Amino acid sequence: MNRQALENMYLENIKIKQVIAGQPINHGGSRCTMECDTENHHVHTYCTMCKKNLFYGTTIHDCIIGFTLGKIRPDMNPKFLINNQWWKEPQAVQLENNINYLKYIERLMNDLPVYKVSLEPFIANLD
């Protein structure tokens, strides 16, 4: 994803609202705060996803929009995600993973908890 595509993704959720001097916005999401110069005309840059007023001209900011580890969040645009495996796992790793997957499926099929429950107390070793 290049910078322009990232900026466009953020711009989809940004609303720009002009505020008239002496008439501050007192309700709604893009309301005036203590930082606003209510005596003069000013502009609000408001993000509808994170519900914050941003500094004028800000597009890319700390928002709930973003990338997580291989998961598509509801606020994300899936066309920007690419999930192609670009490496080849060694044969030993593939076998170990397959064994773990089979154990997991077996426990699900037998209606057992996914992780074995131990009733013995666990005491950590002291240094």
Per DSSP E runs of 2 or more residues, the count of β-strands stands at 3
Shape: elongated
- Low-pLDDT runs of 5+ residues are 68-72
Helical fraction equals 10-25%
Biggest sheet, strands in spatial order?
Answer: 1-2-3
Strand-residue proportion: 5-15%
Q: What is the N-to-C succession of helices and strands? A: HEEEH
> Major beta sheet, specifics?
3 strands, antiparallel
Average of per-residue pLDDT values: 80
The helix/strand class is alpha+beta
Query: What's the Cα radius of gyration?
Result: 25 Å
Q: How many helices? A: 2
Please report the distance between the alpha carbons of the first and last residues. Answer: 48 Å
Characterise the protein shown here.
It is built from 2 helices and 3 strands; from the N terminus they run αβββα. The protein is of the alpha+beta class and 127 residues long. It has a 3-stranded antiparallel sheet, with no helix packed on it. The radius of gyration is 25 Å and the shape is elongated.
Keywords:
127 residues; alpha+beta; three-stranded antiparallel beta sheet; 2 helices; 22% helix; elongated
Structure summarized in a few sentences:
With 127 residues, this protein is of the alpha+beta class. Helices cover 22% and strands 12% of the residues. β2 (42-47) and β3 (52-54) form a beta hairpin.
Please give the structural blueprint.
Elements: H1 3-11, E1 14-19, E2 42-47, E3 52-54, H2 91-109
Antiparallel strand pairs: 1-2, 2-3
